[in-house]
Amino acid sequence: MQINEDKLHAFVGKMLGDLGGAYSVPTVRLGLRLGLFKALHEHGPVTAADLAHLAGGLAERYVREWALAQAANGYIDFESASGTFSLSPEQAMVFVSKDSPFYLEGAFDLVAAMIEGEPKVEHSFRTGAGVRWGDTAGCLFCATGAFFRPGYVNNIVQNWLPALDGVEDKLKAGAKVADVGCGVGFSTLLMADAYPNSRFVGYDFHEPSIEEAKAHARAHGVSGRVEFNATTAKDIAEGDFDLVTSFDCLHDMGDPRGCAGHMRQILRSDGTWMVVEPIAGDRPEENMNPVGRLYYNASTMICVPTSLDQEVGEGLGAQAGEAKLAEVMRAGGFSRVRQATAGPFNMVLEARA
């Protein structure tokens, strides 16, 4: 087989870029935990010695190497004449501003969790078994919550709920809402803060996530009208909900069709099920893009193993696509399913009886 040198060099160049990004994961996480990005944002431009002092008296030699690594990454700016480092407003949106839609601390933590869970997923490749949610890595559920939080902060109340037919009026007046697959509760509490006349119940089958959610509710001072329960979607006993929400979790469920059927049962006859899922085309070739790349890799390491560990184990994956998801929802008894809105990372499906 003859090698095309141009293609080879182009491919090696791509790999160098990819490996550079992979190598940056631990150093970025160190910078976030040690407050180095924050100190640069608040005080830059500064020398490495000043940065080490401003970040709490860190070792200058380590900080200098870290700063040069981030400058080589393109994550911070370096002025060679003065030997100073700084953070641009655009870089701060990614590394400092926690409510920015582009804040990515959770994404870097998620990568680390996937690497930690690699041996368990490899075992599943060999056996066909699944990996229980929460068992893949030490705090996968924490990283997942942090990863999704910026998108939720900037979209749930501003864009997603208003895109549903008549739902926002109900929430303002006072509705009963179930947040199914609530994780650590970020989505539930954002809705509760925005709609004080409504009552919210968050459900998740992962007990440590529910404990985190309860702690967040206490900190928000909304415990009186927000509650969290550890239970599977199909075991929710309460009913007569005006709205059920499921944020980035339906594809993780072992029995999404059974879940859909139960959501239909616990909703009022005029109720709405809002399902937020990763954006995806209906055919694999439509997902050969940077966003699809992220989701397919995360799905391999997290979503599919999680689903295959559960009852039925359908394994939809994070790139199931609208047509497949709508078919699952209709199988549960929803006759009307439409895409209410979409963004670069998510699509919002609205289902009614």
UniProtKB/TrEMBL annotation:
Q: Name one GO biological process term.
A: methylation
Matching Pfam families, A to Z?
Methyltransf_31, WHD_Rv2258c
- Provide the S-adenosylmethionine-dependent methyltransferase Rv2258c-like winged HTH domain boundaries: 29-94
| Example of a GO MF term | methyltransferase activity
Q: Which UniProt keywords apply?
A: Methyltransferase, Transferase
Record-linked SUPFAM superfamilies:
S-adenosyl-L-methionine-dependent methyltransferases
Lineage top rank: taxon? Bacteria
User: Can you give the residue ranges of the Methyltransferase domain?
Assistant: 172-279
- Matches recorded under InterPro entries: Methyltranfer_dom, SAM-binding_MTase, SAM-dependent_MTases_sf, WHD_Rv2258c
**What name is this protein filed under?**
SAM-dependent methyltransferase
Species of the source: Azorhizobium oxalatiphilum
